[in-house]
Amino acid sequence: MPPIQNNHDTSPARSPFDLDGLRVLVVEDSWHISTGLRMLLEARGATVDGPVANTADAMRLVSASRPDVAVVDISLRDGELSYELIASLQDRGIRIVVLTGYSDVSLRKDKATVVLQKPARDEVLIASLRKRE
Q1: Phi, psi dihedrals of residue 125, rounded to the nearest 5°
Q2: Which tens digits make up the pLDDT trace of 48-101?
Q3: Which of 31, 41, 114, 107 is nearest to 74 (CA)?
């Protein structure tokens, strides 16, 4: 008797939010948030650099491997603000998604693809990462 063939695809359905092939830098000083971001992004197929909690570590990662997009918090470890990092990443042609707890961010609109306030819904974040300028 020949083996029974299963003609049903049992692989997970591809989501319109898949991030396959996207390299994402995560710059976030909260361990819980950064770990959650990494798990979410990797589950959607992204390659994640980091997470890192300060500008110096972020720039070390960028010099080793250029990300397509960066998820950056405004307030980093030890009171460091990420405005200079955002400008440097933008100068390198890296798209920026700001994910912050601040309700009012002093950032020119052309400096980031989008500014999301924490907590952001997963699908909104994923869509923001896929958005092309």
Answers
A1: -60, -50
A2: 998 999 999 999 999 999 999 999 998 899 988 899 999 999 999 999 988 887
A3: 107
Long-range contacts of 86-90 (CB under 8 A, 24+ apart): 86/111, 86/112, 87/111, 88/59, 89/25, 89/58, 89/62
**Fold classification of 23-130 (topology level):** Rossmann fold (3.40.50)
Q: Rounded to an integer, what distance in angstroms lies between the CA atom of residue 120 and that of residue 37?
A: 11
Is-contact 55 113, C-beta < 8 A? no
SS3 category, 117: strand
Q: Within 10 Å of residue 89's Cβ, how many Cβ atoms? A: 26
Quote the tokens at residue 128. Answer: 């923001």
* Cα(27)–Cα(58) distance, integer angstroms: 7
Distance CA 90, CA 72 (A): 12
**Cα dihedral 44, 48, 26, 121 in deg (nearest 10):** 10
Rounded to an integer, what distance in angstroms lies between the CA atom of residue 112 and that of residue 13?
A: 31
